[in-house]
TrEMBL record:
UniProt feature, compositional bias: Low complexity: 342-356
Name the record gives this protein: EAL domain-containing protein
Organism: Vallicoccus soli
Region (Disordered): 331-356
GO molecular function: cyclic-guanylate-specific phosphodiesterase activity
Membrane-spanning residues: none
UniProt-listed CDD domains: EAL, GGDEF
Domain EAL stretches: 507-738
Entry-linked NCBIfam families: GGDEF
Length: 738
């Protein structure tokens, strides 16, 4: 149980098949290390607020430590190693006072300890790998120190795996937020109860798996019923919108703001501890009060041994206690009494650093740098085999090289092919002493003195290529353990490379389709009339693209993902402008913010009368730089081109967006217009947009009018223009006679 290291090579843990997730992989690695290095307890832990939480542990832990177990971070062996008070490896813990203090604090009766950080791609500490033994380490300090390189390799691998899984978790969080945007409270524009419940479930799963901080704040508006009764529901609706605007202004991109009920809001705060949530709650009280909105606010963090449901109940209780205290003070003041000071409740918030943030997306280059640095070599690269050729797919070097990534050459006569064929071992410490490679042309060309390489296979068993590293000087200390570094990384490298290759293949496929489309003359155009709603006279048309197959949205989205979005949009603009002389009224052209920013758009528009052109800026992507977008639009608008904000009320069409662009035309999104005759919330939002447009001199166009009832309601609301199947369908322009 507390025995020393097992001799021999050990298992190639990272290459023995796929793992369901980080916890599965870590458990296999930890059990392998226990068998090879010794010590009784092996685990991976991560700091969450003031606690250290176990993410993974070897089976049958003698101290009863299992995933989810926690203890104060300041009581652990890990903190004393990380802050330099104790060494990474202690064969006899009793010789180190700082570790003896930790033992007294945490109650784990260890006599030997080994602690290493789990590094992320940028050097940040994502967690710790910790091993403890119930007896002093057999062989003493020299033998435990000798085991450190083996453990450090596996710690680096686990760090890469955890960083990748945290990156995937963050991508999932962004996808969930995007989905939540579709489940929006129509009146306020924030998430609704469904969005809240789904996000709460996802964050609970992430917190359980990765032990990350997460907190929430609940806000209950005071006196909403009285406002509705005394001033009317329009005043109450405005109160709700003001509150929502304040909450969104303080929320980060990763946070969720939702309306939970009639007068209650919630903020879900990933990566925030109790102290941070309490500070935000205090800020929100002041900001809401400054806007004339009275509110009771409660905050709580997910407890280490509890759930987000517990945090929600605690925050709700805190909010209700504040509301009761507020009412008590008001009653006392009316009666001329001095209110008694409220008693203290709850405990002080923990002052602790936030857990490490999710790592940036993993890449083959980042993994190559990890391998190169771990081996202490000058060059690391990934080869991809294509038939009889090999391509240097990725190269990371500390020294100048006579080649770069992308070079292709025959596989025969290379170290890589010899390793795959079994004609050369995976480790060559000194090429000058190895007859098999000494006289190879590539040895002289690249100046290879020492070389390590391993085959790389995809998960379906196909040979992908090789993962290799070399230095210009011989290194007689190279051993099989150095090849183990590459073996530990190769499956992760293969997964990332396969994903990147797939993305590149899809990009080339899209570009080929766009080239074929251009050869056929580009997208075809149809034109949908825009009419005055009172007299139904035509005031202009909107140009719409049509493609040989599939929807226009799919074509434009695929082009944008392939980096060719502006090019396709500009082709469509050019085709539409060819028809301008046959158009009655204005010609509206759909363009994304990215296309507006290209100088080519202005060149395409230059030959045509600007007063007849309307640019509809689509709202399906966020605008990061309003100043830059307005700078690109300024000369066009100065010449007479009008600006329309398309899809207002959907996507990213917030009031801030509309205010920042100050459009000449506001186009109500189809989702607002459809069924508006039977939907008071949509009527309220359309009325608000119409009022804003009237105050700023803009024109409102209702899109997607499909029934007479919708048309009549928009007329009653004072909407000037409209378009939709009920009025006129998109069609090619009539071909002029002669």
């Amino acid at each position: 149980m507390g025995g020393g290291r097992q001799q021999g090579r050990g298992r190639d843990v990272a290459a023995e098949g796929s793992f369901a997730d980080f916890r599965d992989a870590a458990q296999v690695v930890l059990e392998d290390l226990r068998g090879r290095v010794g010590l009784d307890s092996w685990l991976v832990a991560r700091r969450t607020g003031g606690d250290s939480v176990v993410l993974a542990a070897a089976e049958d832990d003698p101290f009863g430590l299992a995933p989810g177990a926690s203890r104060p971070f300041e009581d652990t062996y890990c903190v004393r190693v990380l802050d330099g008070r104790a060494p990474a490896a202690a064969a006899d813990l009793d010789e180190h006072p700082a570790l003896v203090q930790a033992r007294a604090a945490n109650g784990v009766p260890a006599r030997s300890v080994l602690v290493l950080p789990l590094p992320g791609p940028d050097g940040e500490v994502l967690g710790t790998l910790c091993a403890t033994g119930r007896a002093p380490y057999p062989g003493g300090q020299p033998e435990l120190d000798a085991a450190l390189p083996t453990v450090r390799v596996q710690a680096s691998l686990l760090g890469a795996l955890l960083a990748r899984e945290l990156r995937l978790a963050e991508a999932a969080r962004r996808a969930e937020r995007a989905e939540a945007a579709a489940t929006t409270d129509v009146l306020t524009g924030v998430g609704n109860r469904r969005a809240w419940d789904e996000a709460l479930a996802h964050e609970e799963a992430r917190a359980t798996r990765y032990a990350g901080d997460v907190a929430l704040v609940v806000v209950d508006l005071d006196g909403l019923k009285a406002v509705n009764d005394e001033q009317g529901h329009s005043a109450g609706d405005e109160l709700l919108r003001v509150a929502a605007r304040v909450l969104r202004a303080r929320a980060r991109e990763s946070d969720l703001v939702a309306r939970l009920g009639g007068d209650e809001f919630g903020l879900l705060l990933p990566g925030t501890d109790g102290a941070g949530a309490a500070a935000l709650a205090a800020q929100l009280r002041g900001l809401l009060a400054a806007e004339g909105v009275g509110a009771s606010v409660g905050a709580a963090a997910r407890p280490t041994s509890g759930s987000l449901a517990d945090a929600w109940r605690a925050a709700d209780a805190s909010m209700y206690a504040e509301k009761v205290a507020r009412r008590s003070r008001a009653l006392a003041e009316r009666a001329g009494e001095r209110p008694r000071p409220a008693g203290r409740a709850g405990s002080a918030a923990q002052a602790a650093q936030a857990a490490a943030a999710p790592a940036p997306p993993a890449s083959v280059d980042a993994l190559l740098r990890l391998a190169r640095d771990q081996l202490g070599m000058e060059v690391a690269f990934l080869n991809r085999f294509d038939g009889e050729q090999r391509t240097f797919r990725n190269v990371q070097a500390r020294v100048p090289l006579p080649f770069a990534a992308g070079r292709t050459e025959p596989r025969q006569g290379t170290y890589c092919q010899m390793i795959v064929d079994g004609a050369l071992g995976e480790v060559t410490p000194d090429t000058s002493r190895d007859d098999r490679v000494r006289d190879l042309p590539i040895t002289a060309e690249l100046g290879i003195g020492a070389y390590v390489g391993v085959p790389v296979h995809l998960r379906d068993g196909r040979l992908y290529g090789t993962l290799c590293a070399f230095s210009r000087e011989p290194d007689p200390t190279l051993r099989d353990r150095d090849a183990q570094v590459l073996r530990s990384l190769r499956q992760v490298v293969a997964d990332v490379a396969e994903r990147e290759d797939g993305e590149e293949a899809r990009r080339h496929e899209v570009l080929a389709r766009l080239d074929a489309l251009q050869a056929e003359g580009g997208p075809q155009m149809v034109f949908q009339p825009v009419l005055e709603l009172d007299g139904l006279g035509q005031v202009g048309v909107e140009a719409l693209s049509r493609f040989p197959t599939g929807s226009p949205d799919a074509w434009f989205a695929a082009a944008a993902a392939a980096g060719a979005g502006p090019d396709l949009e500009l082709r469509a603009v050019a085709r539409a402008l060819e028809a301008l002389e046959h158009v009655e009224g204005f010609l509206a052209l759909n363009v994304s913010p990215a296309t507006v920013a290209t100088p080519e758009l202005a060149r395409r528009l230059a030959p045509y009368p600007p007063g007849r052109i309307v640019l509809e800026v689509t709202e399906h992507e966020a605008i990061a730089d309003y100043d830059g977008l307005n700078a690109a639009l300024r000369p066009l608008r100065g010449a007479g081109v009008r600006l329309a904000v398309d899809d207002a009320g959907a996507g990213f069409a917030s009031m801030r967006h509309v205010l920042a662009l100050a459009p000449d035309v506001l186009k109500l999104d189809t989702s607002l217009v459809r069924g508006i005759d039977a939907h008071p919330g949509r009527q309220a939002l359309a009325t608000a947009l119409a009022t804003f447009a009237a105050a700023t001199g803009a024109t409102v166009v209702g899109e997607g009018i499909e029934t007479q009832a919708e048309l009549d309601l928009l007329r009653d609301l004072g909407i000037a223009h409209g378009q939709g199947f009920h009025l006129a369908r998109p069609a090619p322009l009539p071909v002029p006679a002669g």
